[in-house]
Structures are given as C-alpha cells and as structure tokens.
Fold this protein.
Amino acid sequence: MKVIGISGSPRKDGNTEILVREALKPFYEKGWEVTEFFLSSKTIKPCTGCETCKETGTCVIKGDDMEFLISEFEECDAVVIGSPAYYRNVTAQLKALFDRSFVFIDRKILAGKLGGAIAVGRGEGGGQSLVLSIIHNYYLSMGALCVPCEINGLSARADKPGDILKQEKRLRQARILGENIIKYAEMMYRSR
Ligand SMILES: Cc1cc2nc3c(=O)[nH]c(=O)nc-3n(C[C@H](O)[C@H](O)[C@H](O)COP(=O)(O)O)c2cc1C
C-alpha cells in the first residue's frame, strides 16, 4: 500500500510540512510505502491552457516534477494534501499542481482512492475552511474519496514556521487523519 503526502507550502519545514509529516506517521508505522512530495523543494510549472493534452494525452511542459508525481499517483492508494491559506485560497504552487492534473483527468488515475486534507492559516477563520473545500473539490473532481479527520479535514491556526509544534491537539488530529485513511483503506481492501 502506498500513500503520497503533498505539502503546498513554499516554506520548507513550515507548519504545513510538519502537519503532513505527522499525518504520514501512522502509514510508516503500518508499513505503507510513503512518498513525501513537498512543493518547497519541487517545481511544477503552471498550466498554459493549450489543451494539447486533450489530443495527445501528454503535457507539452517538460522538465519539472509533474511527470514524477503522475507516476506516483498511478501507483498510490491514498493521498494527503496540506496547504497554508494564502489569501483564503491554496498556494499558487498547489494550484499549479491541480491545474496540471488536467492531463490525466480522463485516465481516472485517482478514482476510488482515498484523500485527506489539511489547512493552516494565521487567522481564526483565516480561510482554512475554504482551503479544505478546495482540496476536497480537487479530490472529488478526480473521483477520489474524501476522508474525514475528527470532523471534515484538519483545520489549524499557526503563523511562524514551527508554531504548530506547540499544539499537541492539532498534531494528534493530523495523526487521526492518517489513521482514518488507513482504516478506510483496510475496509475497502477487505470488501474487494
Ligand atoms: C502570501 C501570504 C498570504 C497569506 N494569506 C493568509 C490568509 O488568507 N489567511 C490566513 O489565515 N493566513 C494567511 N497567511 C499566513 C499563512 O497561512 C501562515 O503563516 C501559515 O502558517 C503558513 O504555513 P507554512 O508555515 O506551512 O508555510 C498568508 C501568508 C502569506 C505569505
């Protein structure tokens, strides 16, 4: 079984990366194969809207990390996506990843797979719920299934890098998100 943890933050070792890593811990413990795909150290160029992929099935943009991500998506059973709120939205880096997914939308490579969502913002009501909806909408557009945390996705309030480490409740909720995905995956596996 394989999970991909995606952080949309351009900030290395920031709050989103910490929470995504925390959500991945139960997968490591259960022996899943884990890929960390953190956009602070990856490049995904924005979609140019040429729609060549609709005719050829491939993207004209080369030389970034999208091809690697697509091969990971093909092999995975579950995905965890986290993003900071940037102007009450996901980051530009994560939106680029979403838009570039146009190339595989007809191939349904995420259909029936499990997805968890994490949002971090400095404000109370700083747009975290919008960010969760945007990530969940991505999963639904791809035919993937949204897995809840304690309720909905994980919504956290933190600002400076590492602030979230002082919030044991949120770290625990991130692990609950991971545990829930594993639980759902095991249920699906048993019913096959
Ligand atoms: C360009 C920019 C826009 C931001 N917009 C929001 C926002 O709309 N709402 C909010 O609560 N926080 C906002 N923030 C704060 C970040 O979401 C917050 O610092 C978060 O912890 C960053 O996550 P990271 O440490 O994973 O990078 C913004 C920060 C930046 C740099």
